[in-house]
Amino acid sequence: MRTYALIAILFFSALGLAQSQANYDETKVPKFTLPDVLTSFSGNPITNQTEWEENRRREILQFFEKQVYGKVPDRLDEYGFKLLEESNDAYGGKARRKQVAITLKKNKKSITYYMLIYLPKGNPTAPVFLGYNYYGNHTVTNDPNVPITKAWVMNNDSFGITDNKATESSRGIRAHRWAIEKMLDNGFGLATIYYGEIDPDKNDFSDGVHPLFYRDGQTKPKTNEWGSISAWAFGLSKAMNYLESDVNISKVFVFGHSRLGKAALWAGATDKRFAGVISNNSGCGGAALSRRKFGETVAQINTSFPHWFADSFLKYNNNERTLPVDQHQLLALIAPRPLYVASALEDQWADPKGEYLSTYHASSIYALYGKKGMTSKEMPEVDRPLQQTVAYHIRSGKHDVTDYDWEQYIKWAKNFAL
Ligand code: GCU
């Protein structure tokens, strides 16, 4: 346990140092040309939806798959879910609660993860937000009927999590990040999963979903195969198999904060069943343009979190110029579905301007479908959301998910919820 604590301290001080030494000076952003979403890798212009979907979208998707997040190596042998529990009187009778176990099987190995769902009782079917949580389903609510995750959890002294085990003391500690009652009052439900049950967030490929796919003797994914972000996206997609089968659920908006915002974007890009995508402060490898090298960079993220991306992404460390794609193209893969990107003013590490510019440069694909995106390179003012099919806000305050963020997401998602 001592060694773990020491490693954790060294890791966080290294990350802190990287954050304080990063570039936050707009005048030092390198000059760059972004690869155009509307010009194919071989230089052909893309002028309509068919060319986009059949040629350009496909080649961009394949590039992100093999060279950025990493490919899922194969199909599962079996997929199953089980409704473990259901109740009609959650949140003082406002909501129904369901808890579902999802099991993935491959090569005679399996993993099981758990989804907690709250649905508003007013309507027989409701749209839901689907999002991963960081410390276990029991942390998003004070509801005593939600079991404590048994999976490996990141230590956090202030949450009483030591030895990588969550206990009763962390119940509800992240409730402030999930405006569940607001969602319910506005006709939305929430489905949430603890991300560590798909793949524990550490540089170790012996646990989580990856080993299910290994051949004899294999200990880690191949160079262009999936890192953790891709594994988390895969988990969301399999959760969607359950959600689309639930008669009480209509549309699913996939949501994620920070590293889990990166996973939500990749899930939305790879699985068209998600009706909309929300990226909250996703930053580098999420919504932010890599070429700006503002705040966190590709080299930095690959060094601090070597397990997040495919190994093939390493060749772009300090070499963003040679990337045939940039993150606006990840956003374009979500078109024409609704997309919300949100930043926070004090979260310069995630490069708010780079996140906004991505929405701007992805908007030409939305235009191909007659959908509204961003029309100006100028960012909107702080706390002044711009909400069309592509939406963006920069809120005052820190890297976090706040009630303000949820109020915006709910208001916007209502336009697409029916
Ligand atoms: C670190 C990391 C970011 C990530 C964030 C988070 O700051 O550098 O890329 O988004 O953690 O997930 O909270």
Furnish the topology, listing elements before pairings.
Elements: H1 2-21, H2 49-69, E1 78-90, E2 95-106, E3 109-120, E4 126-133, H3 180-185, E5 189-194, H4 228-243, E6 249-257, H5 259-270, E7 276-280, H6 298-304, H7 327-332, E8 339-344, H8 352-368, E9 386-387, E10 390-395, H9 403-414
Parallel strand pairs: 4-5, 4-6, 6-7, 7-8, 8-10
Antiparallel strand pairs: 1-2, 2-3, 3-5, 9-10
Helix pairs in contact: 4-5
Bound molecules: alpha-D-glucopyranuronic acid (GCU).
General description of the model:
With 418 residues, this protein is of the alpha/beta class. The chain has one domain: Alpha/Beta hydrolase fold, catalytic domain (Rossmann fold), CATH 3.40.50. 28% of the residues lie in helices and 19% in strands. It has helices at residues 2-21, 49-69, 180-185, 228-243, 259-270, 298-304, 327-332, 352-368, 403-414; strands at residues 78-90, 95-106, 109-120, 126-133, 189-194, 249-257, 276-280, 339-344, 386-387, 390-395. Strands 1-2-3-5-4-6-7-8-10-9 form a ten-stranded mixed β-sheet, sandwiched between helices. Strand 4 (126-133), helix 3 (180-185) and strand 5 (189-194) form a beta-alpha-beta unit. The protein starts with a helix and ends with a helix. The model has no long low-confidence stretch (mean pLDDT 96). Bound molecules: alpha-D-glucopyranuronic acid.
Quick summary of this structure?
The chain has 418 residues and is α/β, with parallel strands linked by helices. The chain is built from nine helices and ten strands.
- Give average pLDDT, whole number: 96
- One letter per element, helices H and strands E, the order comes to HHEEEEHEHEHEHHEHEEH
Strand sequence of the main sheet, in spatial order?
Answer: 1-2-3-5-4-6-7-8-10-9
Stretches with pLDDT under 50, minimum 5 residues: none
Compounds present? alpha-D-glucopyranuronic acid
Report the total helices.
9
Structural class: alpha/beta
CA-based shape: globular
Please state the CA-atom Rg, rounded to the nearest Å. Answer: 20 Å
- The CATH architecture can be given as 3-Layer(aba) Sandwich
Q: What is the terminal-to-terminal distance?
A: 51 Å
Counted up, domains total 1
The counted number of beta strands is 10
CATH topological fold name: Rossmann fold
| Biggest sheet architecture | 10 strands, mixed
